[in-house]
């Protein structure tokens, strides 16, 4: 079985500040991990993913995430927040042999000017 | 098509009425998923279709919910005798066969259902 926990349903940062969105997972198989972003009134868009190989993955819009097996984490970061980053972010897990993705509850990111 | 298309984008219905939500996946994508997004509830898996295999209906919340996929392409999610708690955004996603686990899905923009 797989599950995802996103710590913090709402995160607020100032423009230019570091963005850190937390994701912890549980998986009985080596995980594949994803971050999706949802802008208002839109569907979800893939930001980045980890399957195998390098544990630091880079995605679109300057975001990156690091897979830490020992901590069962896949936190999303961006060095400097921009107003356009305001959105809802979802972490998801699957794994080899899995038929579907399991999503976290989502974190709403607000950027303060 | 170029992306996953869902219709209608918004639907307001009276309690007790039936509704049909449509999803047209990316051409060639054999896997199709329905999720429900309720306020503060994240994404809840509803049903999964893969080719000619029997669908995984394990996420359907009640027997008022059903879905079909005709010709391996378009899918319709039907909610009978709608209740206010059915109000949510219903998201459809598709992927190439066997690749969802490693590559993720492509999502549609969703149908916002409001039951009044």
Task: Give a structural overview.
The complex is a heterodimer of chains A (113) and B (116). Chain A is mainly beta. Chain A has strands spanning 2-7, 10-14, 19-27, 31-38, 44-50, 56-58, 64-68, 73-78, 87-95, 102-103, 107-112. In chain A, strands 2, 4, 5, 9, 10 and 11 form a six-stranded mixed sheet that branches. The radius of gyration of chain A is 13 Å and the shape is globular. The termini of chain A are far apart. The model of chain A has no long low-confidence stretch (mean pLDDT 93). Chain B has one helix at 100-103; strands at 5-7, 10-13, 19-24, 31-38, 42-50, 65-69, 75-79, 88-95, 106-107, 111-115. The model of chain B has no long low-confidence stretch (mean pLDDT 92). The A-B interface holds A 9, 32, 34, 36, 41-46, 49, 51, 90, 92, 94-106 and B 4, 33, 35, 40-43, 45, 48, 50, 56, 91, 93, 100-110.
Assembly state (oligomeric): heterodimer
Q: For the residues shown, what is the average pLDDT of chain B?
A: 92
- Can you give the helix content of chain B as a percent range? under 10%
Span from first to last CA of chain A? 41 Å
Helix content of chain A: under 10%
Rg of chain B, nearest Å: 13 Å
Low-confidence stretches of chain A: none
In brief, what are we looking at here?
Chain A has 113 residues and is an all-beta fold.
